[in-house]
Amino acid sequence: MQNAQSSWKDDAEYVTIVEDLIYHEELLQMEEITHHHFTNRLEHSIRVSYTSFKIAQKWNLDACATARAGLLHDFFLEDRDGVAALNIGSHADAHPKIACDNACRITEISELERDIILKHMFLVSRCGIPRYKESFVVTYVDKYIAIKEVTVPLKDIISNRIRSFITKLNPANSNA
Ligand SMILES: [Fe+2]
Ligand SMILES: [Fe+2]
């Protein structure tokens, strides 16, 4: 995860595609919002965007739309309570709509990009079936990255706790 986070900056093609968004003051605010317990919403969005972009390039898909919509797929500044207070459905149903509205305010959004953002919660919301291959790439990458973001730090926390517990135990032959 750390590698993808740092390597996007060295990818001139990717930076050119997203630079008007990635340093946008509203997107930068997502850096302050905890996401998936151990990361922030901007880092998560960049991981999804860059990983999806590389897959789209490899498969000759629209890598530009994939990168931009991937970056905007979770573009909302509310926490869970804030989204719930809007009364526009469950968190899974509502946040893609908010992200799409926010995206339309700061840039032009194509039909493909709209589908990518609105359908990124495919299988865990009532958003319907994605219409494009690029939408499927982003929805699966989002899930893969989300699982990694939660499980990798959790694995480190658990193994550190086990290690610290074990080091406190007396060796079996300590009384010998
Ligand atoms: Fe999301
Ligand atoms: Fe996401």
Automatic annotation (TrEMBL):
This is HD domain-containing protein. SUPFAM superfamilies: HD-domain/PDEase-like. It comes from the Bacteria. Residues 41-122 form the HD domain. It comes from Trichococcus palustris. CDD domains: HDc (cd00077). InterPro entries: HD/PDEase_dom, HD_domain.
